[in-house]
Amino acid sequence: MINKAVQFSTILALTAGCSAIADTRTSDVEWVASFEAELSARMSTAGVPGLAVALVERDRTVFQGGYGFADIDTDRRVSARTVFHIASISKIVLGTALMMLHEDGRFKLDDSISEFLGFPVRNPYFPGSAITFRQIFTHTSSISDDNYGETDETFFTPGDPELPLREFLAEYLQPGGEWYTPSGSFYSHEPGSEWSYSNVGMALAGYVVQELSGDPLNIFTQFRIFGPLNIESAGWMLKDVDRTRLATPYDFENGELKSLGHVGYPDWPAGLLRISIEDLASFLKIYTDGGLVSGERILQEGTVEEMLNSRLYKTNEGEEQHQGLFWIGYPEKGKIRMGHGGSDPGASAMIAFSEGHTKAVIVVSNVSRTEAVTDLQDWVVDEFLDFPCGSDNAN
Asked: What CATH number is given for 85-273+286-330 in this structure?
C-alpha cells in the first residue's frame, strides 16, 4: 500500500448549467469536496497510487482532475496533464481513424479485410468464409488471442515494440508462421457467428490503416485526429511522449505497490496509446457531440450513432454480449451502458457514457487492474454520471 498520504491536484471547470445539485448537494464546490474526501479513502483502500478523472458533456469538459501520485518515489503528483497508458481504450482512437477512412470511401464494412492487407487471412476451419471489417470491429472475426497469451513474454519488451506490426500479424495469422497454429490463432466457430474479444484482430485493423492511407496508424492519427484537435500529449510510442509527464506504472506484489518499467508489444494498435486526461477528454467530445469538436468535424453524426449502437451477440460460452463498432455495451441498472475498459500491467482505464451518449466519464489509473481497482473506477463513473449536469442525466 502507499505509505504516504494521498494528495490531490484538481482542475475544476464546472460550468453554467451544472449548478443544480440534487438532494444534500447544495453547491458544486460542496459536491466536489465530498467526492474528493470519499475518493481519498477509496484510493487508499484499493491501493491506487494515482488517478485522473474527467467528465465531458457535449462540447464541454465539465470537470477534470488529478489525484495521488504519478510517481511515488519523487512525490510527483497527478494532474490533468499527466500522461497515462490507457491500454485498450486505445481501440477507440483506432476505431475513429478507421471510420474516417470508411467515410472517405476506402472500404465498406462488409468487405473482406484480406483484400486490403497484401496477405490472406482466413479461418482454417471455415476457409470459404471471408473475415470482414465489421467482424473485426465487433470482435466477431473468430481471430483468437490464445497463442498470444501463451507467448506474451516473447512479445512484451522494455520500451517501444521491437517486432514490426506486419511481421507479427503475418507470422501469427498465416499457416507456417512462427506463432501460428489453427486452434491458437483462430476459434473453431465461423466468422461472424460468435463474439470473442480479440486484440490481434484489432491489431490487424490497425495495420489496415497503413494499407488504406499510406501512413502507419501513429502518423495517421497525428495528422487526422490529434493535430486538428490540438492534442499534444498523445503518443503510440514512448519516443513520442514527454517522459517527464508520464505516470509510472505500478503493480501489486505481496500487498505492496511495485513500480514497473514501461513496455511495448507488437499488437500496439490494440492498446499502447498514452495520453493525458485533458487531451483524452478533448478527443471524447467526438462522441458526446455528434462528431464535432470545437467546430472541427472529425466524424459524421451518423457514423458516431452507428458506432455507439449496441447490438446483441452470443459468446462461445452462450452468454449475451452487447457490442457496437469498437464501443462495448455493459449491462447496468437494467440498461446497456456504452463504453470501453482498458487493462495492462500498470494501467487500468475506463470510459462510460450516459444513456443518451451526450455525457461521458473517463477514469485512468497507473496501477494494474484488480477487483478493488475496478470497484473504485465503477464508483467514480457512477458518481459523475449521477452528477446533475445538463439535460441528459440518465445512466
From this structure: 3.40.710.10
